[in-house]
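Would you be willing to look carefully at the protein I have copied below?

:::
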Amino acid sequence: MTWAPHVTVATIIERDNRFLMVYEEADGKKVYNQPAGHLDPNETLKEAAIRETLEETGWIVELTGVVGVNLYTAPSNGITYFRTTFIANVVSHDAARTLDTGIIEAVWLTYEELLARKDQLRSPMTLQIIEEYLAGRRFPLNVVG
């Protein structure tokens, strides 16, 4: 059997000390996560991050950097995710846009509000990558193709 991780992207968008998050239903639970999703065929990682953010939140963003690349194996299904997390600024919002299936709403939360919801985060990576961002971990956007 050939093993292959799932390639995913996520985006950290901070505005006024709040992070753009999605409140979604995943694996039968309601959880918080960064706007995130899978890479589509013939798509770059950057294109995927912009697309997923729009589809899940209605926000058009401009990527400005990279926080990191992480591996996470979900205990619920044993799948390993290879995730690139981008940093972005908001450009505009389409409040009338229908969000992806499973997305309940897009919300802006402070770090403290995320800590208070720690048991409702989609994975430990959700908070980990925000803490890396808050600690100043940044790479230039051209670190990925």
Q: What stands out?
A: The first helix runs from residue 45 to 57. The first strand starts at residue 6 and ends at 15. The helical segments are 45-57, 111-116, 124-134. The mean pLDDT is 95.
